[in-house]
Amino acid sequence: MQNRITKLFGIQYPIIQAGMIWCSGWELASAVSNAGGLGVLGAGSMYPDVLKTQIQKCKAATDKPFAVNLPLLYPDIDKHIATILEEKVPIVFTSAGNPAIWTETLKKAGIKVVHVISNEKFAMKAEACGVDAIVAEGFEAGGHNGREETTTLVLIPQICKAVKIPVIAAGGIGTGRTMLAAMVLGAEGVQVGSRFVASEESSAHINFKNKVVDAKDGETQLSLKRLTPVRLIKNKFWEQIAMAEANGASKDELIVILGRARAKKGMFEGDLDEGELEIGQISGSISEIKPAATIVNDMIQEYNVAVTSLEGSRL
């Protein structure tokens, strides 16, 4: 399976593991890369010294390409950039900010740059800034989400039509069939988050992993729209937010409720009541914690079966 994404990253399969905060450490990133996909370290939850250690451990665990996901609003981003340049990270995924600020610096160092977007306007802006590819993330995705609430089914063909660079589809993708659907829509790769949260190598707390496996249809909802929209599993904390939003809470009031380190409390420390549990809608279809390599292999096998099935179903 060769296309512009596999050639750009030097990988076997166009499967990219999302750089999820508190869930994407070196164990997961190296396992996905070793399985033929692209593993990604989630730098948004790491102090600069922690990121450096994670990069070095990932290098020791795989000789395959891997990437770092870098939220551009990170407070000490200049330190993260310095670490990435010093450690010669080959690929960087940027998100949550203006790609014009750091793309040129990264590309001058020979780093491939990919930017995450949720609408056509920012896709075109990212392309104009010189990024090598785009992740188009639909409304179904976990974690921080686009305000437009555009679904993956609608977003992917729209973005593929608007830009010339390769598009990676994200949001609601975690099986071979959904991967094929994204490719049919025009994407050349898929970014998978929630399915890899429930992997053996994920750095998420086992309580959170089990919560994802137990989640049923309709148990996530996009919340905190007045701040930064984020898809959460419904729990005690979510109920508090939902009640405050229903009562017309201001941004400042929501910030007070959110507090500090709420995502760490839920996803990394395993507090299922008071923690922020970020996950995608596809969690309702996840029923088992598996090794990352098994997840990759299952997706590829199902993809190939689905392709064969479609080839025999021409009208």
How much strand content do the residues show?
A: 5-15%
Order of helices and strands: HEHEHEHEHEHEEHEHEHHEEHHHH
Give the integer mean of the pLDDT values: 94
> How many discrete domains?
2
Distance between the termini: 25 Å
Residue share in helix: 40-55%
Structural class by secondary-structure content: alpha/beta
Within the largest sheet, what's the order of strands? 1-9-8-6-5-4-3-2
Radius of gyration: 18 Å
The main β sheet shows up as: 8 strands, parallel
Please identify which CATH superfamily of the largest domain we are dealing with.
Aldolase class I
- And the CATH topology of the largest domain? TIM Barrel
How many strand elements?
A: 11
Low-pLDDT runs of 5+ residues are none
The CATH class of the largest domain, by name, is: Alpha Beta
How many helices? The count is 14
CATH architecture of the largest domain: Alpha-Beta Barrel
Shape field: globular
Structural summary, described in words:
The protein has 315 residues and is α/β, with parallel strands linked by helices. It has two domains: 224 residues, Aldolase class I (TIM Barrel), CATH 3.20.20; 67 residues, no CATH class. It is 42% helix and 15% strand. It has 14 helices and eleven strands. It is globular. The mean pLDDT is 94.
